[in-house]
Write a structure and sequence with these properties.
7-stranded antiparallel β-sheet, 8 helices, 9 strands, globular
């Protein structure tokens, strides 16, 4: 931890999202930093509900004050602390108190160093002011015993890797690749493709399927969409070394017909979404971004 404390007030702009975040406190999470959008901090929040809850109020992140908090369907809690360049619609839920904005900027610089260069993890603790910290990951259930067991196993694995680098990703980044994925013995190429598959699998496929289940898509259509969207990327990631993800995916696909309601479908896939988003967060942290330090935009300062 950095030893930096920042206070924020939640507001009513997206009260449903703010309430879901409040109810999930306290928790800890690996702190990340935007790599493309600019001065933005974010981490994976262990809140299943944010995948599907409606957002009443949206803003362009570039236009709101520094210190604005966002809760997104990417399962992120984010904080703007400076200039942003990406024109992304976002759902604000609060704002850092004015007296802590300098501390927020200091934290932003330190987290950037963590993600881009040092690779020393920074863990954020999010808690209610005046109350003790702590940590828990919520557990959802399915009626079918076999699929509930899968949800339990995914939950346990997510807890195991939540604050510690997954061994499979650590091996991959250290060049220990059993399948020898990486033409001519390269590693960076494999890391790039793993990152490129992991993020959309969590952000779009699993998160989107959970949202569609809550929005009323028929169950058989959900099963068809799941088979179409998750099988191929999971097979590739397993080949690259994420064998635990591959095994979970096989169990899920084999048991889709056992999920008899949209609620059970959403529960099991929400656990998969959180697990894959956790993998994605660690992959972004471990990735050797500084190898491209010589590649700078024209006129950009280093």
């Amino acid at each position: 931890m950095l030893g930096v404390t920042v206070a924020a007030d939640l507001d009513e702009r997206n009260a449903v999202l703010a309430d879901a975040l409040w109810d999930a406190l306290p928790y800890r999470s690996l702190q990340g930093h935007a790599l493309v959008a600019g001065h933005h901090l974010y981490h994976v929040a262990p809140v299943h509900e944010v995948l599907h809850l409606p957002a009443a109020y949206r803003v362009d992140r570039r236009t709101v004050p520094d210190g604005t908090l966002f809760c997104s369907r990417l399962q992120h809690l984010g904080i703007k602390y400076g200039e942003l360049t990406e024109p992304m619609a976002a759902t604000p839920v609060g704002r850092v108190v004015p007296g802590d904005l300098d501390a927020l900027t200091d934290a932003g610089r330190a987290v950037w160093e963590s993600v881009y260069s040092s690779k020393k993890p920074v863990v954020a603790e999010v808690r209610r002011a005046g109350e003790p910290g702590g940590h828990r990951l919520p557990r959802l259930h399915a009626a079918d015993p076999e699929m509930d067991a899968l949800a339990g196993d995914v939950h346990a694995e997510t807890e195991r890797i939540w604050l510690d680098p997954p061994r499979e990703l650590a091996d991959l980044h250290d060049g220990r690749i059993a399948s020898r994925a990486g033409t001519h013995g390269t590693v960076l190429t494999t890391l790039l493709f793993v990152n490129g598959e992991t993020r959309p699998l969590g952000y779009n496929a699993y998160s989107g399927l959970v949202r569609l289940a809550h929005e009323g898509m028929p169950l058989e259509s959900l099963r068809m969409a799941a088979r179409a969207m998750i099988a191929v990327p999971a097979e590739f990631l397993a080949y690259c070394g994420l064998e635990t993800l591959g095994a979970f995916t096989e169990r899920l696909l084999d048991g889709l017909d056992r999920l008899a309601t949209r609620q059970d479908f959403a529960a099991v896939l929400a656990h998969m979404a959180l697990y894959v988003n956790c993998l994605g967060g660690w992959n972004l942290h471990l990735f050797p971004w500084s190898v491209g330090d010589h590649l700078r935009q024209t006129g950009a300062a280093s």
